[in-house]
């Protein structure tokens, strides 16, 4: 049995016991106010029974027909309780007015009536506090409604108590007036409960909440625009749908990080929340020309590299290599190049000059094997010799492999940490050209520069 079910069951027993005691004393002394209060407690018993059933259903996990869970059943129970209270308040009000008109005799108030009311007030304060606490902690609409019932019992018992004191003071119609006061109190509380429940069933949210969440989400780094935020609450869980505009240059990892930050931001403000974030890529003013070229190539699904951008007065000239399969016929390769060129012009304008160079794409898995130790040592020596003349330090981790009809070389080297990257690249190009002159069979050299160790 869950905590919600346990407090509902205790309240069920309390409601039945109090209703029976007040009804017996009310009939004994002839007090309409106390009988009314007894029937009020009787409706509490019925309402608490409905609450217990609703809580049991609401605790079920989501299923095929209720993907958001069963929390709305608690709101339905609260709606039924509110309607029951309104009907009861109307019936009691009519009876009280009739008694006032007829001049019904005053009840025979005694110590037993005061004792029953005293015990009931203490028990109802205890149950209202306990139910309200659990309702806040679990987000249970049904327990909140039940807490309201027990709270109204406290106030109605105080009204009956005031009627008894007025009767003892000699006011003939005090019991009927107290009955009307109880009925009005019940009706006001029922209307308040009704509004709260209807708001829950119609997915209403507190005024200003969407604006507050929008401001918080908009402040998350990487969010270009908040298109919409929709919230529905089922039980104590908020289900939130968020639509965002994000930079179209974002990689998948960046999008995943952004979604996590947005989810945390919303959960920090709402508490328990299941958040679904959908993104729409948008162009941002900070995009560089290179980023726009890469995005254009991504749209047509063709890899590009070695992008060169020139400003020719008021227009751009762009050249780049596009990668195509080595066995692709020239006609198909040219069509691929045309696709890239058209995508770039669509992105940057029709007057952009675009030149593409076809580059055969190497297969992902090439057969390779280490060359003999003598060849590796000879290439290593030539690398160190050329590096010394170019002030490149510590050539190491040299690997030489056979790659088809040629040789593939990888090595690491070091430069001072403050050396400009462009200078590093230029000197490594010179080193590679020098080694290739001595070893024409080398197909490719991959160099990895590192900062000099302190």
TrEMBL record:
Domain Cation efflux protein transmembrane: 9-201
A Pfam family the protein falls into: ZT_dimer
Origin superkingdom: Bacteria
Location of this chain's protein in the cell: Membrane
Record field: transmembrane: 76-97, 109-126, 147-171, 177-194
SUPFAM superfamilies linked to this entry: Cation efflux protein cytoplasmic domain-like, Cation efflux protein transmembrane domain-like
UniProt keyword annotations, A-Z: Membrane, Transmembrane, Transmembrane helix, Transport
Domain Cation efflux protein cytoplasmic: 210-277, 302-360, 391-451
One GO term (biological process): intracellular zinc ion homeostasis
GO molecular function, one term: cadmium ion transmembrane transporter activity
GO cellular component, one term: plasma membrane
Entry membrane topology: Multi-pass membrane protein
Gene3D superfamilies, per database record: Cation efflux protein transmembrane domain (1.20.1510.10), Cation efflux protein, cytoplasmic domain (3.30.70.1350)
InterPro entries: Cation_efflux, Cation_efflux_CTD, Cation_efflux_CTD_sf, Cation_efflux_TM, Cation_efflux_TMD_sf, CDF_Transporter
Family: Belongs to the cation diffusion facilitator (CDF) transporter (TC 2.A.4) family.
Protein name, per record: Ferrous-iron efflux pump FieF
Organism: Hartmannibacter diazotrophicus
């Amino acid at each position: 049995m869950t905590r919600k079910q346990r407090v509902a069951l205790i309240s069920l027993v309390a409601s039945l016991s109090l209703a029976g005691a007040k009804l017996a004393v009310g009939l004994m002394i002839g007090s309409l106010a106390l009988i009314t209060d007894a029937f009020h407690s009787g409706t509490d018993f019925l309402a608490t029974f409905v609450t217990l059933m609703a809580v049991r259903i609401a605790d079920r996990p989501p299923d095929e027909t209720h993907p958001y869970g069963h929390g709305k059943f608690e709101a339905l129970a609260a709606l039924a309780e509110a309607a029951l209270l309104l009907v009861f308040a109307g019936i009691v009000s009519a009876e009280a007015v009739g008694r006032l008109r007829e001049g019904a005799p005053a009840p025979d108030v005694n110590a037993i009536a005061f004792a029953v009311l005293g015990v009931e007030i203490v028990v109802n304060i205890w149950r209202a506090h306990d139910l309200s606490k659990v309702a806040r902690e679990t987000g249970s609409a049904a327990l909140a409604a039940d807490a309201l019932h027990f709270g109204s019992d406290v106030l109605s018992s105080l009204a009956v108590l005031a009627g008894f004191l007025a009767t003892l003071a000699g006011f003939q119609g005090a019991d009927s007036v107290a009955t009307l006061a109880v009925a009005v109190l019940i009706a006001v509380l029922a209307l308040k409960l009704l509004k709260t429940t209807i708001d829950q069933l119609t997915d209403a949210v507190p005024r200003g909440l969407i604006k507050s969440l929008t401001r918080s989400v908009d402040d998350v780094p990487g969010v270009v625009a908040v298109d919409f935020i929709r919230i529905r609450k089922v039980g104590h869980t908020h289900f939130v749908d968020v639509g965002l505009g994000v930079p179209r240059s974002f990689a998948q990892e960046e999008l995943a990080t952004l979604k996590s930050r947005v989810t945390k931001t919303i959960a920090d403000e709402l508490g328990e929340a299941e958040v679904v974030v959908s993104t729409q890529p948008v162009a941002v003013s900070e995009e560089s020309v290179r980023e726009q070229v890469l995005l254009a190539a991504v749209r047509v699904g063709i890899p590009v590299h070695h992008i060169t951008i020139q400003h020719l007065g008021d227009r751009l000239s762009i050249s780049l290599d596009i990668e195509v399969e080595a066995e692709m016929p020239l006609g198909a390769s040219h069509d691929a190049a045309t696709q890239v060129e058209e995508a770039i012009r669509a992105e940057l304008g029709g007057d952009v000059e675009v030149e593409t160079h076809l580059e055969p794409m190497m297969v992902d898995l090439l057969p390779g094997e280490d060359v003999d130790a003598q060849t590796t040592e000879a290439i290593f020596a030539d690398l160190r010799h050329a590096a010394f003349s170019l002030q490149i330090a510590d050539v190491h981790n040299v690997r030489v492999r056979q790659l088809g009809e040629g040789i593939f070389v990888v090595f690491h080297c070091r430069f001072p940490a403050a050396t400009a990257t462009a200078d590093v690249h230029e000197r490594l190009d010179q080193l590679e050209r020098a080694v290739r002159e001595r070893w024409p069979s080398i197909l490719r050299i991959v160099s990895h520069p590192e900062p000099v160790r302190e």
